[in-house]
Amino acid sequence: MTIRSARTWFVALLAGLLLAACVPPPTPHVTQIDAGAFHTCALIPGGGVRCWGQNYFGQLGNGTSTSSSTPVDVSGISTAIQIAAGIYFSCALTAGGGARCWGHNEYGTLGNATSGTGAGSNVPVDVSGLTGAVRIVAGGFHACALMPGGTVKCWGLNWSGQLGNGTSGFGSISSVPVAVSGLTGVSDLVAGENHTCAVVSGGVIKCWGENGTGQLGNGTGTSSSVPVGVSGITGATKITGGGAHTCALVAGGAAKCWGDGVFSELGNGTNISSPVPVDVIGVTGATNIDAGSATTCVVLAGGAVRCWGRNYAGQLGNGSTVDSTVPVTVRGLSGAIRTAGGSDHTCALTKHDGVNCWGSNGDGQLGTGTNVSSTVPVAVVGLP
Q: Is there a contact between 193 and 174 (Cβ–Cβ < 8 Å)?
């Protein structure tokens, strides 16, 4: 190499390095994920939605009842701004604050003024009379929407009062949205399997619905059809609801949980349920929290993920199938933004690697193109 060619090569290399330093890191193509019992959905750029996994009830929304181990497009959704997945159904919040849902509808879960066996839909249908909503959440067989001014409307199954309108029992099912009683100033909202919770002014948490394992956090085991205050929590920034437990992030990114603890869901080193919040061991600096059926995961400030609870299918992501009463680190995962927990699988949205999932995969809910389960994260295929 001549002196001139060496100089030219060096200048080109320097220019390339400077250009690389100025280019921002890649951003994830998927903007949000959520998981139902045995399916997962992703919000993609442009307002489309793709789902994968079990589809017995049409919860993938592609006009079929055939399960898929790779993501498929939800029919007719092009303006979604947020998604939510329930046990056997899915919903999307659309531009303008409307909502569309698809899947199981025996209990009015789709909110389209119909219910009963055979009334489900394998393509999205409009939630009746809902406009201006700013967020949607999905539970077991009910869903709720956060409305302007911090009020909440819910629809679907209400046997434990999870709609929050002062009624309960199978006769109080509502196939259209109804207002939650006495609730204003809501900043965060979550639906568990049969209960619902909201963060209100001052970071106070109020919950309603099933309370057999203390998931309402008010020190009792009595269900409530109207919101009741969670004991001893202020300054909450985010909440999440699992099958029968609830967790929250509080000041400093610490985590507190309450409710069912039989499968170590509370993360406090025991297998004991608690009707009041208990501290999750060793969690600080968490930026996000999400619960599956009997597991919970937090995203830490650096992008690592730690999970605790039930692990029979590897849904904790630490390479084992042993339950853990304290948080354990998900292996080989970095740059995480948020997680989503299902019945026995978990997924994470990351900054650079798209969506990764782990746990059970019998219905293709890991999105890998196979039905092979994994105790560590594996990449979802077929996402933009």
A: no
